[in-house]
């Protein structure tokens, strides 16, 4: 039976790209289950299809998922491109760190993309930002859709992976997608208007094929920026540099706040870890504690 991946789902139809490169319009039959839970096929799911005509098929089985995003609902996303502008709006570390935690929590590979390089007047500023995040363990790509700077490098990171773009509104996500997929023509620079509520108007996500291989979701991912559903003990693992250092903390389960012999605090005090990143860790920890108290 041919295997393929769902790249689009519209009112009961699943559009599947088979390994042979065919696109089939499919209905789903039967109940699909993972670990005894019923599941509905999602965009991104690998499925087994039975061909019933040249262009039609039936989804017979959904293969186990590697990852599962809720917003937008996509299975098997490999990578988040976390986008932040260098100018207009000015670079802000706090929202970037929030998006990074979110992507880490989902278990995605991460690439940081710093946009609007053409508006930068002080290269030293850019250098400093890059150093902070490269030292934390992230690949950083600097782009401009005006000059084309960094686009090839970004394409190299996207190759052969399923990626979602994430980041605040106005940082240039749609502009980047338009650059990567010239046929796409997403609106840019518009304050996105809330579309009606009913299920008929639900924006459908689609996985688009990149010319050089790989796929991207045509809508940004995880704009939900609370830490709901996350345990306080998990936060450290969402900061790669904290995760690495914490092995040397005296206590297992050290939260790196005021425990004795904390390797993370020592790293911050001796300048080996970025102090702002650590401050953001503490702030997120606080927010999570307050959230817990409220529920
Ligand atoms: N100068 C400059 N402006 C950009 C760049 N990328 C996006 N913009 C502008 O930034 C604004 C927001 O871009 P958009 O792609 O809609 O951001 P999104 O909300 O993240 O999708 C638009 O006016 C774009 O023209 C860039 O590389 N350089
Ligand atoms: Mg946009
Ligand atoms: Zn510690």
UniProtKB/TrEMBL annotation:
Compartments (UniProt record): Cytoplasm
Q: Which CDD domains match?
A: S1_YloQ_GTPase, YjeQ_EngC
Q: Where does GTP bind?
A: 115-118, 167-175
Residues annotated as binding Zn(2+)? 249, 254, 256, 262
The chain positions of domain EngC GTPase read 75-223
Paste the cofactor note. Answer: Binds 1 zinc ion per subunit.
Determine the domain of life of the protein's source.
Answer: Bacteria
A GO biological-process term: ribosomal small subunit biogenesis
Which EC number(s) does UniProt give? 3.6.1.-
Drop me one GO molecular function for this one: metal ion binding
Tell me which residues make up the CP-type G domain. 66-225
Tell me what this protein is called: Small ribosomal subunit biogenesis GTPase RsgA
């Amino acid at each position: 039976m041919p295997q393929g991946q769902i790249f689009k789902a519209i009112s009961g139809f699943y559009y599947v790209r088979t390994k042979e490169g065919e696109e089939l319009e499919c209905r789903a039959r039967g109940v699909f289950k993972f670990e005894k839970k019923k599941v509905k096929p999602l965009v991104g799911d690998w499925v087994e299809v039975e061909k019933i005509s040249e262009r039609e098929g039936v989804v017979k089985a959904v293969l186990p998922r590697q990852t599962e995003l809720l917003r937008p609902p996509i299975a098997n996303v490999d990578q988040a491109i976390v986008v932040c502008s260098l100018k207009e709006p000015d670079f802000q570390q706090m929202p970037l760190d929030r998006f990074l935690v979110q992507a880490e929590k989902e278990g995605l590979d991460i690439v940081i993309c710093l946009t609007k390089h053409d508006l930068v007047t002080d290269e030293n500023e850019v250098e400093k930002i890059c150093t902070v995040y490269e030292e934390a363990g992230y690949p950083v790509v600097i782009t401009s859709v005006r000059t084309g700077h960094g686009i090839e490098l970004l394409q190299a990171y996207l190759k052969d992976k399923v990626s979602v773009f994430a980041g605040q509104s106005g940082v240039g996500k749609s502009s980047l997608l338009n650059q990567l997929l010239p046929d796409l023509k997403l609106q840019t620079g518009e304050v996105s208007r809330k579309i009606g509520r009913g299920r008929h108007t639900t924006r459908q996500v689609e996985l688009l094929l990149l010319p050089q291989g790989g796929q991207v979701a045509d809508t940004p991912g995880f704009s939900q920026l609370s830490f709901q559903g996350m345990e306080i003990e998990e936060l450290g693992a969402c900061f790669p540099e904290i995760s690495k250092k914490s092995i040397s903390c005296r206590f297992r389960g050290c939260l790196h706040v005021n425990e004795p012999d904390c390797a993370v605090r020592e790293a911050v005090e001796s300048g080996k870890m970025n102090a702002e990143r650590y401050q953001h860790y503490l702030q997120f920890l606080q927010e999570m504690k307050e959230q817990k108290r409220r529920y």
